[in-house]
UniProtKB/TrEMBL annotation:
Transmembrane segments: none
Source species of the chain: Gadus morhua
Domain of life from the UniProt record: Eukaryota
Pfam family, one: RAI1
Keyword Nuclease included in the entry's annotation: yes
Job description of the protein: Decapping enzyme for NAD-capped RNAs: specifically hydrolyzes the nicotinamide adenine dinucleotide (NAD) cap from a subset of RNAs by removing the entire NAD moiety from the 5'-end of an NAD-capped RNA.
Location, primary (coarse class): nucleus
Lineage of producing organism: Eukaryota, Metazoa, Chordata, Craniata, Vertebrata
CC cofactor note: Binds 2 magnesium ions.
GO cellular component, one term: cytosol
Protein name per its UniProtKB record: Decapping nuclease
Region (Disordered): 1-53
GO MF entries: metal ion binding; mRNA 5'-diphosphatase activity; nuclease activity; nucleotide binding; RNA binding
BP GO annotations: NAD-cap decapping; nuclear-transcribed mRNA catabolic process
Residue ranges occupied by any RAI1-like domain in the UniProt entry: 73-411
Length: 418
């Protein structure tokens, strides 16, 4: 079934180099073609709205970011961790699940078990970066030994530590018209930590979710259960409990222009075939979406959903998505595999559609902006970056406030020699 009109066409310019390199070891264009935003030679208008000497705001206008694709190195998995059914951290891959190909006519009822076999994670508990910080402490000597030679770099050898989901939000910002965000930034031992803060609007939305919406949030997890087995030789167990506390997270390292990034993201499952490649190329993202019946629905799928799906998987180098299309009653009517590298072809006939280069360039400029603004290296200082649709990104500074997010156990753990 090719209900989305997928066919292979030459890639649009700008994305071509990056695609070609994706098969090698870097996702990049010629680095010489990348111009940092502060370059005096830039021909396009500066995205920084500056007042005299200091930069106070960053524009999110799409046109400013229509530049060559920035260097984005092929992400490398440097570790992984697991969260169990009680959300306890383990420095290992015990929660990894294995992908099992769905039947050509799947009989998946995503509503099954919502009332009686669902344990929902308590999302009022704000975990901030805690699990990633735990992983960093548990792997501190390994990380530090990698940078021992390069004395000028930060202790951890990376410029930015964050969740993949926070970067996904940055990538989609130039196209987002509904939801703003707040990102807290702290510079500690030369590394910038970025941690999301819930907005008032998001808190209200969560509080006012309808019963139908709450149930539909379960459907995505239920779909995962139909396609995932707990070990190499097992089958999925649709009669089991869906517990959203459980997670397997990959930790990857990569570089966006001159920003060395270390981030973690949840991974749904991995390929279990004998020829499956090394992580993260063996990982598979699972998604659900409403069945597509009209050209308008297809266009919306391309414009809105594929943007989010692309951003989420492209960042950690997850190469494919298995999508389940469902009817309004939560029955899966078909599944399809979508290669991340093919998404730019799928959207190319959409008028005025999103562009991967805009997403990546905006993220890159945002990180440069943050590094320009945040100069004081202290776990007690938070710069809170704030964005609302149709506005610039702005920030406020907070010292010893409730926005501080690096816990004492991390600050002390990083200072101790072992
Ligand atoms: P879908 O992806 O099928 O929508 P992820 O896809 O990132 O692995 O997330 C798994 C599932 O969590 C989603 O499945 C969806 O059911 C639920 N979910 C995650 N974030 C959500 C959000 N912001 N709103 C609604 N549901 C969400
Ligand atoms: Mg998923």
């Amino acid at each position: 079934m090719d209900q989305h009109g997928r066919k292979v066409n030459p890639p649009p310019s700008g994305y071509k180099n990056h695609r070609r390199n994706m098969d090698n070891d870097t996702l990049s264009v010629n680095p010489k073609r990348f111009r940092p935003s502060h370059s005096p030679h830039r021909a396009d208008p500066a995205p920084l709205s500056s007042s005299a000497s200091s930069c106070r705001a960053l524009s999110t206008r799409r046109q400013l970011y229509e530049k060559p694709f920035p260097v984005y190195k092929q992400p490398v998995e440097v570790g992984s961790f697991s969260l169990d059914s009680e959300r306890r951290f383990f420095n290992d891959a015990r929660q990894i699940r294995y992908f099992v190909e769905p039947p050509s006519r799947p009989d998946f009822n995503l509503r099954d078990g919502y009332k009686d076999r669902f344990v929902k994670r308590d999302d009022s508990i704000k975990e901030k970066l805690d699990h990633i910080l735990r992983w960093i402490l548990a792997n501190k000597s390994k990380l530090e030994s990698r940078v021992a030679a390069a004395s000028s770099s930060p202790a951890l050898g990376v410029d930015v530590v964050t969740w993949r989901g926070h970067l996904t939000k940055l990538l989609t910002t130039p196209y987002e018209t509904r939801e703003g965000w707040l990102l807290a930034a702290t510079l500690f031992r030369g590394t910038l930590y970025l941690s999301e803060v819930e907005t008032e609007a998001s808190r209200r939305d969560t509080e006012n979710r309808t019963e139908r919406h709450q149930e539909m949030m379960y459907w995505g997890y239920k779909f995962e259960q139909y396609l995932c087995a707990e070990d190499m030789k097992a089958s999925p167990d649709p009669g089991g409990v869906v517990n959203t506390n459980e997670a397997f997270c990959t930790v990857v390292q990569t570089k966006l222009a001159d920003h060395k990034l270390l981030f973690s993201g949840e991974v749904d499952c991995r390929d279990r075939g004998p020829k499956s490649p090394a992580a993260p190329a063996c990982y598979i993202e699972l998604k659900t979406s409403a069945e597509i019946c009209t050209p308008k629905q297809r266009s919306n799928f391309h414009r809105f959903k594929l943007l989010k799906w692309w951003a989420q998987s492209f960042l950690p180098g997850v190469p494919r998505i298995v999508a389940g299309f469902r009817d309004p009653d939560g029955l899966v009517v078909g599944t399809e595999t979508i290669q991340i590298s093919q998404i730019s072809h799928l959207i190319k006939n959409e008028y005025n559609c999103w562009k991967p280069t805009v997403c990546m360039n905006f993220c890159c400029e945002f990180l440069s902006f943050v590094r320009t603004v945040v100069r004081e290296d202290s776990p007690r200082v938070v710069h809170l970056f704030s964005w609302d649709p149709h506005q610039d990104v702005t920030y406020t500074v907070h010292r010893d406030s409730s926005y501080c997010f690096l816990p004492p156990w991390y600050v002390e753990g990083m200072a101790s020699p072992h």
